[in-house]
Automatic annotation (TrEMBL):
Biological classification of the source: Bacteria, Pseudomonadati, Pseudomonadota, Betaproteobacteria, Burkholderiales
InterPro entries: DcrB/EagT6, Mog1/PsbP_a/b/a-sand
Taxonomic source organism: Burkholderia territorii
Protein name: DUF1795 domain-containing protein
Gene3D superfamilies the record matches: Mog1/PsbP, alpha/beta/alpha sandwich
SUPFAM superfamilies: Mog1p/PsbP-like
Superkingdom to which the source organism belongs: Bacteria
Length: 261
């Protein structure tokens, strides 16, 4: 089944393991969060933990660590809380997948949780993202123009800036902003760029801005540039990519040429 652009999969997958008495105390849940404005999995985990403190009585964080899910970088949270008189423990793993944050959750009574960890590990290690079906029409398209330009999208203001090249982008957006995950970068063909910190910024009395470089990011799992454009509030362009219409037309050409954007 193929759906047009813009349709979202809101499926929630819930799996229960009843105990001997038939109670469904153990659950494994897979959800997709399309509404979060956060692309960075660390920032998303921070927001989750803040929400847990408000929502869960007697919330207590137990662990936080990095994980890899189908080759994608993610984070895992362990915590416990009380539901009435029952002490529950939950473990969440989250990873960015296309235009959603994919969240895996294991829920069980605290005293039973440890014996379900092998199942959790086996499930996550077996998770594989199916590749999209190829578009036969794309392979026959004529090559499009390759530009040195760089797109920078502000996570805070949703302003999309266009810079003439990598050097200009790195000079005009401070390392402090990059270290705070305030910007997402893309090459002119729409492919993601990852900021690599060369020298971290100094804070305090002797504060100084650091340095970073932009490099291709083959492991990127966030929302592609073409699908972010609807949320852009303003464009600060340079020739020949001055307006949103210019950018959309350019990215359509890249897509027709078989480039992901």
């Amino acid at each position: 089944m193929v759906l047009p652009d813009g349709w979202r999969d809101q499926t929630m997958n819930v799996f229960h393991l009843p105990d001997a008495s038939g109670r469904k105390d153990v659950a494994f849940v897979v959800t997709r969060d399309y509404d979060t404005p956060l692309d960075d999995v660390g920032a998303y985990a921070d927001a989750q933990q803040t929400a847990f403190k408000r929502q869960f009585p007697a919330y207590k964080p137990l662990a936080r660590e990095t994980v890899t899910i189908d080759g994608r970088p993610g984070l895992m949270l362990d915590y416990q809380w009380r539901s009435d008189k029952t002490l529950l423990r939950q473990r969440q793993a989250m990873v960015r997948l296309d235009d959603a944050m994919l969240v895996f959750t294991l829920n069980a009574r605290a005293e039973d949780f440890e014996r379900h960890i092998p199942a959790w590990t086996a499930i996550l290690s077996s998770f594989v993202v199916m590749p999209p079906a190829p578009d036969d029409g794309d392979a026959q398209a004529a090559p499009s123009e390759v530009l040195p330009h760089v797109f920078a999208l502000s996570a805070k203001t949703r302003v999309l800036r266009v810079y003439p090249d990598l050097r200009a982008a790195c000079e005009r957006i401070s390392a402090r902003e990059v270290e705070s995950h305030d910007w997402v970068f893309f090459a002119s063909d729409g492919s993601p760029l990852a900021p690599t910190i060369v020298q971290r910024s100094r804070h305090g009395l002797f504060k100084a801005d650091g340095r970073y470089e932009l490099r291709p990011d083959p492991g990127y799992s966030g929302l592609e540039l073409r699908r972010r454009l609807n949320a852009v509030t303003a464009v600060e362009g340079v020739p020949p990519l001055l307006t949103m219409q210019d950018i959309e037309a350019h990215l359509r050409l890249q897509r027709a040429d078989g480039t992901s954007s």
